[in-house]
Structure formats: C-alpha cells, structure tokens
Amino acid sequence: MTGSEEAARAWQAMRTLVLDNDRRREVSDALGLSFIRAKALRRLAEGPATLRELAAALIVDAPYTTVMVDDLERRGLVVRTAHPTDRRAKLVTVTPEGAAAAALADQILGRPPEALLTLDPNDLAALSRIITTLLPFR
C-alpha cells in the first residue's frame, strides 16, 4: 500500500470513529432537538451572533437559520435583541436554559467511545501524540 493510500485509509478510519457514532443521536434525544439545532446552540453558547454569522458558522442558508432560531426562541433557548451597531441586524443570544442544553450536548459529545477508553495506555499516548501533531493542519 502506498503512503497516500495508507493516509486515505487512516483518514477514513478517523472520520468513521468521530462522525459515524451514536453521539449525535444521543444529543438529539437528550435535548429533544435536531442535531443541527443543538450545534447552533453550542455555537451561540460561545457568544452572541447575527443570523448571518450563525448561518456561515453552521454552513446553512439564511432562511433555514431563521427557521432554526425561530424554533429555538419558541423553546426559550435563545433570544433575539437589537444589534448595538447595525439596526438592520438582530443578535441571537442563548438563554440560561440554552446554555445548559449546550453544556449537556458538549458533555455527551466529549465523552470518549468505549473502544478508546480500553486502549492500552501506550497506544493511547501514541494516538494522542499523533493527533495533536496533525491538529495545526486543519
């Protein structure tokens, strides 16, 4: 196997490990929200954003962002306020309930899978070192 083929195989394995697990479903079930709405809450827990900024961060279109924020607002998880410097824009901010939901989502998503917890400590240290080395290239 060539180096590029091995790199592609490793990349696919990492994607499967991180993306193809039940954590997203667990978050959705725990919060009673679609995962993209939970992702929006997690982003807004970092700080207020305009609808445009939120759409860009989530890589979704503006009309869908409005639908999501309308739903989150109805649930009491976010509020819209006037933007302090742009009268045409609104800022979306999480409520305390929204912040708690975002924290729960982070807790669920941050829990390592069982397979990782059972790795040999030397293998885990090597994996951590390798992944940490790769991070600047994102």
Short characterization:
By secondary structure, the protein is mainly alpha-helical.
State the total count of DSSP E strands. 3
Tell me, rounded to a whole number, the average pLDDT: 92
Query: What general outline do the C-alpha atoms trace?
Result: elongated
User: Quaternary arrangement of the chains shown?
Assistant: single chain
Q: Beta-strand percentage?
A: 5-15%
CATH superfamily of the domain at 22-113: Winged helix-like DNA-binding domain superfamily/Winged helix DNA-binding domain
CATH top level of the domain at 22-113? Mainly Alpha
Question: Can you walk through the features of this model?
Answer:
By secondary structure, the protein is mostly helical. It has a domain at 22-113: Winged helix-like DNA-binding domain superfamily/Winged helix DNA-binding domain (Arc Repressor Mutant, subunit A, Orthogonal Bundle), CATH 1.10.10.10. The protein is 66% helix and 9% strand. It has eight helices and three strands. It has helices at residues 3-19, 23-31, 35-45, 51-58, 62-74, 96-110, 114-117, 121-134, and strands at residues 49-50, 78-82, 90-94. It has a three-stranded antiparallel beta sheet. Strand 2 (78-82) and strand 3 form a beta hairpin. Helix 3 (35-45) packs across helix 6 (96-110) and helix 4 (51-58) crosses helix 5. The protein starts with a helix and ends with a helix. The mean pLDDT is 92.
